[in-house]
């Protein structure tokens, strides 16, 4: 079988490696430059590749094409592949064909990385043989090629779900929905939401689908969709006969066969949204029959993900928090909601069609000053200029952190939660977060 892999990053190289190990004829093509360490990996494994070019004739002669999630659906080469009717899969689809492991797949607009990492931690802590992959860590395909895990916990994006055919997780989770990546979905929120719901489309009645009962778009689509998996809800707003919920104001409860409960202030993760993430993760743990004590221990000792509400340091009584992974308004909503002290908010970058009215009330109540960080901050400044007296325009991380430090007083918090993509000034949200930490620690 001839397999062509498009994209020479982590997922592409992993897919090419797995194809090679399966005895397939494999060729990798990247329209851009491939990083040196990936080129070395491909060379070491005798995998043919090209960069800064797409050999269309060779690509279109494939039996199966594996596409990296970063390649837009509207790209010319993708249109030509679809016209020819060649099977086009994401790396998670491709890799799932070569493992019998139980897959726990997590999607949603926000909280994916945290919840995926937390579920992996719960399983690992309990001694299960588990791998972590998808949009996080080492590629799923490379692990399937080299490691014989019984479970995989995968963070899955809508872009990966766009290119599935048979992908069928044992447990799927849809954490929440908010307007994100709409430029890739014809600016249609429902089209984007339906892409997320594809996580459950191949599940059968011996599988599980964990969903957020408080999420309006999920509720609306669940009335139209036929879900075959056993559905288990979680809610932070109402008690439930089965699933996960908040009891009173201080306890999380999961009812599934038996009952699990613990105090919210014992959770290692801060903020209301992380109560929801902890409920979802606990349900997954209960489905896999992990005992209550083990789940409780994991929820108490888990360390937050880098760049997601990460406490960098406390200096002169001012807390500095790195939430660089907040690349949309909804993610920043959760960050602002969890702030307990007056906040100097660093925001800005590449706007993805943001509607700032969703956080207007929180900004009025919680934010004492806004520090814009980006090449073009005009949209943010225009929106908030009549709502906040102190708004500052900066174009480097050093300038933003110095400005924030000058504005903050003892007892305040400086929060980097940009609401926007990072590509105007930074290589990635990770690069932005690391630069923030460097400047703070300076």
UniProtKB/TrEMBL annotation:
State any single GO MF term: UDP-N-acetylmuramoylalanine-D-glutamate ligase activity
Ranges for domain Mur ligase central: 106-284
Every copy of the Mur ligase C-terminal domain together lies at 307-419
Task of the protein? Cell wall formation. Catalyzes the addition of glutamate to the nucleotide precursor UDP-N-acetylmuramoyl-L-alanine (UMA).
Show the NCBIfam families listed in the entry.
murD (TIGR01087)
The name this protein carries in UniProt is: UDP-N-acetylmuramoylalanine--D-glutamate ligase
From the Swiss-Prot or TrEMBL record, state where the protein is found.
Answer: Cytoplasm
Coiled coil ranges: none
Q: Please give the family membership noted in the entry.
A: Belongs to the MurCDEF family.
Q: Which gene encodes it?
A: murD
- Matches recorded under PANTHER family: UDP-N-ACETYLMURAMOYLALANINE--D-GLUTAMATE LIGASE
- Coarsely, its chief localization is cytoplasm
Reaction(s) catalysed by this chain's protein? UDP-N-acetyl-alpha-D-muramoyl-L-alanine + D-glutamate + ATP = UDP-N-acetyl-alpha-D-muramoyl-L-alanyl-D-glutamate + ADP + phosphate + H(+)
EC number(s) recorded for this UniProt protein = 6.3.2.9
User: What keywords is this UniProt entry annotated with?
Assistant: ATP-binding, Cell cycle, Cell division, Cell shape, Cell wall biogenesis/degradation, Cytoplasm, Ligase, Nucleotide-binding, Peptidoglycan synthesis
Q: Which pathway or pathways does this protein act in?
A: Cell wall biogenesis; peptidoglycan biosynthesis
**Record-listed ATP binding positions:** 108-114
């Amino acid at each position: 079988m001839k397999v062509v892999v498009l994209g020479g990053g982590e997922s592409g190289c992993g897919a090419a490696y797995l194809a090679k190990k399966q005895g397939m004829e494999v060729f990798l093509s990247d329209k851009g430059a491939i990083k040196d360490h990936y080129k070395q990996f491909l060379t070491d494994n005798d995998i043919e590749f090209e960069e800064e070019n797409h050999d269309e004739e060779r690509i279109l002669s494939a039996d199966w094409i594996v596409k990296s999630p970063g390649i837009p659906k509207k790209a010319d080469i993708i249109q030509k592949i679809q016209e020819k009717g060649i099977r086009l899969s994401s790396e998670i689809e491709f890799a799932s064909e070569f493992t019998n492991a139980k897959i726990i797949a997590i999607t949603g607009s926000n909280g994916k990385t945290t919840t995926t990492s937390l579920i992996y931690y719960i399983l690992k802590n309990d001694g299960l043989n588990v791998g972590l992959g998808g949009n996080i860590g080492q590629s799923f395909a490379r692990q399937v090629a080299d490691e014989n895990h019984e479970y995989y916990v995968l963070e899955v994006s809508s872009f990966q779900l766009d290119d599935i055919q048979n992908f069928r997780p044992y447990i799927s989770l849809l954490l929440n929905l908010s307007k994100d990546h709409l430029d890739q979905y014809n600016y249609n929120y429902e089209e984007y939401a339906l892409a997320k719901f594809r996580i459950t489309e191949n599940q059968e009645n011996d599988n599980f689908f964990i969903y957020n009962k408080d999420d309006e778009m999920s509720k609306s689509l669940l009335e139209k969709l036929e879900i075959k998996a056993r559905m288990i809800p979680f809610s932070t707003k109402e008690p439930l006969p089965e699933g996960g919920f908040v009891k009173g104001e201080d306890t999380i409860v999961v009812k599934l066969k038996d009952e699990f409960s613990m105090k919210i202030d014992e959770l290692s993760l801060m903020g209301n949204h992380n109560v929801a993430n902890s409920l979802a993760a606990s349900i997954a743990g209960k489905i896999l029959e992990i005992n209550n004590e083990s789940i409780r221990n994991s929820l108490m000792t888990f360390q937050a993900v880098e760049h997601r509400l990460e406490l960098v340091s406390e200096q002169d009584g001012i807390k500095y928090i790195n939430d660089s992974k907040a690349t949309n308004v909804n993610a920043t909503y959760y960050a602002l909601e969890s702030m307990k002290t007056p906040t100097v908010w660093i925001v800005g970058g590449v706007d993805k069609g943001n509607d700032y009215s969703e956080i207007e009330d929180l900004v009025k109540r919680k934010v004492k000053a806004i520090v814009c960080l980006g090449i073009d901050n005009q949209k943010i400044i225009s929106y908030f200029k009549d709502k906040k007296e102190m708004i500052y325009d900066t174009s480097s991380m050093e300038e933003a952190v110095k400005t924030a430090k000058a504005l903050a007083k003892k007892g305040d918090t400086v929060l980097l939660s940009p609401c926007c993509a990072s590509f105007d000034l930074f290589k990635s949200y990770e690069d932005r977060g690391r630069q923030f930490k460097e400047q703070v620690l300076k």
